[in-house]
Amino acid sequence: MLVVDLLHEFELGVFKSVFKHLIRLLYAINNESVVLLNERFHLIPSFGKGGIRRFPSNVSEDILQCAILAFEDLFLDSHNEVVRILLFHLAEWHTIAKLRIHTDNSLDLLNQATRCLGQQLRKFRDFTCSAFQTMELPGEIAAHQRKSSNLNSAGAGPGPSEACPKAFNMQTYKLHVLGDYVSSIKMFGTTDSYTTQIVCMHLHEVARRARTPTIENVLPEYK
Description:
Layout lengths: L5 H24 L1 H13 L23 H4 L6 H21 L6 H25 L9 H16 L19 H4 L4 H8 L8 H15 L3 H4 L5
Helix pairs in contact: 1-2, 1-4, 4-5
């Protein structure tokens, strides 16, 4: 049996997908809304050691803890409420799933949070997403252009150079597998024991040390 992976299935999967589509919606409403969102994230101060780090001027993806305040009033009233509740349920689910100690009550809460998140995602798709014609983000267009350039150099035909329509997709494995977290925790323990974030953090530390000048990596002959 495969264990769940909180990092790639939720943080870099479900939440990243929702966040990117929220950006598409803001572009569909007004480009200035995206600029305002970046400014809000940039103004958020850091908190704790490794809790909330200062965001750069261009927003990164890892922003779930601060998303509700940053997106406040960027949508019309009816849509603003849907987005706010969705971001709350995403943060609630993520918080419970990352607990390092679980009881029967906390697993019941995770089950309930999963149902609420699914219901709100469907409402977001049917009510808010359906009200706007969303297109690919500038970064997605640039990725298509790079791919097209590589194909052209390999002798293939040119690819699309303009933004294509992009709808919110809920038919993904990463969203479907959220319903397996309770059973996985019961069988294998808490998610911090087997998340791929452990490996990623170790690789980042190795890379950081490799960039740090030392006698060993500056003068190898002195090892």
